[in-house]
Amino acid sequence: MTIERARVPLSRWQQAAVAMGSAVGALVNPRRADLIAALGETTGKPAFEMVLERMKKSPEGRAILLDRPRVVSEQVSHAWDLPDNTFGAAYAKFMGSRNFSPDDRPPVRFMETDELAYVATRAREVHDLWHTLFGLPTNLIGESALKVIEFEQMYLPMCMLSVIGGTVRFNEKQRSMFLRQYLPWAVRAGRQCTDLMCVYYERHFSEDLEQVRRQWGIIPAPQHPK
User: Fold this and answer.
1) Fewer CB in a 10 Å sphere around the end CB: N or C, the chain?
2) 98 vs 42, higher pLDDT
3) What does the annotation say about its assembly with partners (predicted)?
4) What is the DSSP letter of 216?
């Protein structure tokens, strides 16, 4: 399904209703990716507008908006054939070890314009690339830490709501580890690195992973939480 065909126009009160329903549903069932995605879209328009303006001011960001690359199997499958030391191979290993597919992300439905819909789609599709770059696992601590980085990069309200929801579900040991180690690291990592929405990742798949981390100011996660 194309981005344009997936879009659903909403009035302001309809947006508010979808946001409220999605927030409640996501709290009840945090595994509902579609509800979390809907919450992000209906509360994130100002943030996505700011990201769009930053991309328009960046040469690489403008190239992304012009080409509109997608992180889907059809366009990134070559990453599985790259040498082990490359960024692309690290991404392929991350996805393959978890039996993830680049095509699993729900489509963007509630953005008003094609440009904003693409920016929201891009933000959603680079999520696993950021996991790879920062060396974060996909457990509750890893996902919560990445949401902090996403908030520092994009200021999406949904990211902070997800962090709050995540900390509620932590046990005492996880909460202590997150607050003492991962939260301070994620805030620093999100602020120190380059504007990650203005990176044309697909052009860098064949480059050395550690080299692109240095180039983009990436601070890898302190350790993998057990």
Assistant:
1) N
2) 98
3) Component of a multi-subunit COQ enzyme complex.
4) T
